[in-house]
Design goal:
There is one protein chain. With 215 residues, this protein is an alpha/beta fold. It has a single domain, classed as TIM Barrel, CATH 3.20.20.70. It contains ten helices and eight strands. An eight-stranded parallel barrel has the order 1-2-3-4-5-6-7-8, surrounded by seven helices. Strand 7, helix 8 and strand 8 form a beta-alpha-beta unit. Helix 2 runs parallel beside helix 3. The longest helix is centred in the N-terminal third of the chain and has 18 residues. It starts with a helix and ends with a helix. The relative contact order is 0.16. The model has no long low-confidence stretch (mean pLDDT 96). Bound molecules: ligand LCLJCK34, 4-methyl-5-hydroxyethylthiazole phosphate and magnesium ion. Magnesium ion binds next to loops.
Length: 215
């Protein structure tokens, strides 16, 4: 894995998952705004999309990330991550096992893992092949329907692990509740709607960035 990607992950505080915003305006303009606002990692998360269409959109994501020196992430699919030259592959508990993804991708791609319970977070903190993990949802969210929210208790537990491995809180986080997430011990967050549905996504990203850097 490149030292640059690893160093960027170590410094990352704000991770955005977004769809390809097909109906919501120019994708490159949106990505430029949020990356200029301080998003460190941007993931294309568009669950219904077929691989060919995903690859086309990922070219726009990859160009934007390269312009801003930020990390590109692919959700779920190791084949798409490889084909897109992604820096990051994100895997949930029901996705491809990390060991299988590593066998396919080698050491060139950072791998992230979702966790929703104390035992999963503790395992992800030490599991071989995992570069970072996410913990949540902090609050129930329409972005992940049907996923019960373990809440801030899981964030507190994860913070208490004292792991050096980067980890992010996720789920229902916005600028109004960010302080609660920080007080629970998180220093990195993943957001979807708080940026994608903001009137000014670049300004929302900049406000997250400022407050995360002060924490
Ligand atoms: C950065 C990040 N964290 C968590 C998730 C959720 O992954 P998963 O649990 O596999 O759910 P889906 O997003 O695949 O529906 C994520 N995608 N990215
Ligand atoms: C993908 C995912 N996994 C757990 S919560 C979540 C979605 C978070 O979306 P939002 O920030 O809009 O609540
Ligand atoms: Mg998944």
């Amino acid at each position: 894995m490149s030292d640059t990607a690893r160093a960027r992950l170590a410094d990352a505080r704000l991770y955005l998952c977004t769809d390809a915003r097909k109906r919501q305006g120019d994708l490159a303009e949106f990505l430029d705004a949020v990356l200029a606002g301080g998003v460190d990692i941007v993931q294309l998360r568009d669950k219904g999309m077929e691989a060919a269409e995903e690859l086309e959109h990922l070219k726009v994501f990859a160009d934007a990330c390269a312009r801003h020196g930020k990390l590109l992430a692919v959700n779920d699919r190791a084949d798409v991550a490889h084909a897109a030259g992604s820096d990051v592959l994100h895997l949930g508990q029901g996705d491809l096992p990390v060991s299988a993804a590593r066998a396919l991708l080698g050491d060139d791609v950072l791998i992230g893992r979702s966790t929703h319970a104390e035992a999963e977070a503790a395992a992800a903190a030490v599991q071989e092949g995992v570069d970072y993990f996410c913990t949540g949802p902090c609050w129930p969210t329409p972005t992940k329907p049907g996923r019960p929210a373990p809440g801030l208790g899981l964030v507190r537990h994860t913070a208490s692990l004292g792991t050096d491995r980067p980890w992010f809180a996720i789920g229902g986080i916005d600028l109004a509740n960010l302080d609660q997430v920080l007080e629970a011990g998180a220093r990195r967050v993943v957001v979807v709607r708080a940026i994608t549905e903001a009137d000014d996504p670049g300004a929302a990203a900049a406000e997250f960035t400022k407050r995360l850097s002060q924490a």
